[in-house]
Amino acid sequence: MWKIAIINDELTHDFKKALDWMQAQGLRWVELRSIDRRNIVDLTDEEMQAVKRELDARGLKTICIASPYLKCSLYAHPPAQRGDTFFSQADDYEGHRQILRRAIAAARIFGTNLIRVFSFWKEPGQTPEMWDLIAERLKESAAVAEEEGVILGLETEHAVNAATGKQVRDLIDRVGSPALRAIWDPGNVVWAGENAIADYPNLRGQIVHVHLKDTFLTPEGRTQAAILGEGRVGYPKPLELLKADGWEGCLSLEPHMGTIYEDEAQWAEGCRKCLVNLRGWLDELGVEYE
């Protein structure tokens, strides 16, 4: 059975309000990223336990810790491109090693074994030496994950070095650890200028989790988020590919409505439309979900 989740701060920065929305929409799973404008990895154990009580009170379970791990500089110099770290401040590898430890602590407290990770802010010149260093650091990270019994989901993310399924798969193969798998975000692949459908076979058999967003090009040529099904990704084709491969896992909504609307009420309404579309496609495909 597939699962549907949403990253909590895609709805609002008011954590309890987001949970109430999920409960009202009949969701059972949540992916945790920031809590009232603080990154999940920056909370103390006691604060995490208080968050867990709020989830328990609403019958919600955590599917993934959406950590900012390795959304940082690979080298000492500032990267040419940065993205959103969702209130996390550390920007070097040493600082992020502590983030990994806190993400593992969060996974234990919230009862999940999955932690979302990245591949460092995108470097302007992607050299073989750069990929060697990224693979080395991911191998170190995967060794920690194996020891701690968690899985690191390496996301296809347009703002970091491994933006496509091919790039993520290459790193997974180089690391060679069962603790490093893939998080497929077809919207991010398209955001990076690639065809997500054509890129999908690169990740076949490695996808442990899926993020869903859609994108379109503005008349000025700028990429912008869109309601699922109204952009360039080609939904529901990604879902059809997953079903054809017998995949099972969680589809987590990350539609980035906050990049379109300032009003958080509009974020939630956009997310509701995405959820309605997603459930409709799954019903048409005959996929059982919760």
Describe the protein's architecture and organization.
The protein has one domain: Alpha-Beta Barrel (TIM Barrel), CATH 3.20.20.150. With 290 residues, the protein is α/β, with parallel strands linked by helices. The protein has helices at 15-24, 45-57, 93-110, 128-148, 165-175, 186-191, 196-199, 237-244, 264-285, and strands spanning 3-7, 29-32, 34-35, 38-39, 61-69, 114-117, 151-155, 180-184, 207-212, 214-217, 223-226, 250-253. The model has no long low-confidence stretch (mean pLDDT 95). Helix 4 (128-148) packs across helix 5 (165-175). The chain is globular. 39% of the residues lie in helices and 19% in strands.
Name of the level-1 CATH class: Alpha Beta
Mean pLDDT across every amino acid position: 95
Number of strands: 12
Q: Per CATH, which architecture? A: Alpha-Beta Barrel
What structural class do you assign from the helix and strand content?
alpha/beta
What share of the residues lie within helices?
25-40%
Low-pLDDT parts are none
Distance between the termini: 7 Å
- Determine the number of helices (DSSP H or I, runs of at least 4 residues): 9
Major β-sheet profile: 8 strands, parallel, barrel
